Amino acid sequence: MTIRVLVCEDQELVRTGYVAAFDSQPDMVVVGEAADGPAAVEAVARLRPDVVVMDIHLPLLDGIEATRRIAGPGVPDAPKVLVVTTFNVDEYVYRALRAGAGGFLLKDTPLAELIQGVRTVTRGDSLLSPAVTRTLIGRFAGRIRPGETGHARPLDVLAPRELEVLRLMAGGLANAEIAERMTISVQTVKTYVSRIFAKLDLRDRVQAVVLAYRSGLMDGEA
């Protein structure tokens, strides 16, 4: 499978670097570029990429609203959106995830990690490294109000072991770490994660992490 990538970044030098890095990979092809929000939305509709690498700060229409239009609730066949951010704008991260982003990386992430991140989000796996999850989610978790609407299914549809997997996932643990903590196999963890997604009508791991905080599951954990 060749991953079709759309790069949305207003800084030409950064955008050119991303394009060159992705196009150099045997399993990726850059199908288009966009330097502002409206161009990003139009390009997605026209080019149908698999993954959109989205800068938060875009002119005319910011990356959060562009993400909502590209991959928000109710958008059919939405591509994965990888938001690129920096620590000094982390107050926007939660909004980006709620808008439909599949995850985020820091803007100073090495290109090799960014490339791997595109592959990871394409698979539907967690894009967030445990370190990034613990740092960024922990910093804005206090702003997530338990009981906020946005997901139709409450956590009580989960079995106790599924609930524990969700809690550990939201705590920033990777599948292998969850398996070790719960003394089960990695494949069993993956099965639990799939069931959680299905039961809660979630698209990916990032949505599960945000829901765990928003539901109050992580009270006292952040």
From TrEMBL:
Domain named HTH luxR-type: residues: 151-216
Annotated InterPro entries: CheY-like_superfamily (IPR011006), NreC/VraR/RcsB-like_REC (IPR058245), Sig_transdc_resp-reg_C-effctor (IPR016032), Sig_transdc_resp-reg_receiver (IPR001789), Tscrpt_reg_LuxR_C (IPR000792), WalR-like (IPR039420)
Pfam assignment, any one: Response_reg
UniProt entry tagged with the keyword Transcription regulation: yes
4-aspartylphosphate found at: D55
Biological processes annotated in GO: phosphorelay signal transduction system; regulation of DNA-templated transcription
Domain Response regulatory per the UniProt entry, residue ranges: 4-122
Keyword terms of this UniProt record: DNA-binding, Phosphoprotein, Transcription, Transcription regulation
Taxonomy, superkingdom: Bacteria
GO MF assignments: DNA binding
Keyword Kinase among record annotations: no
Cross-referenced SMART domains: HTH_LUXR (SM00421), REC (SM00448)
Protein name (Swiss-Prot/TrEMBL): LuxR family transcriptional regulator
Species name: Amycolatopsis rifamycinica
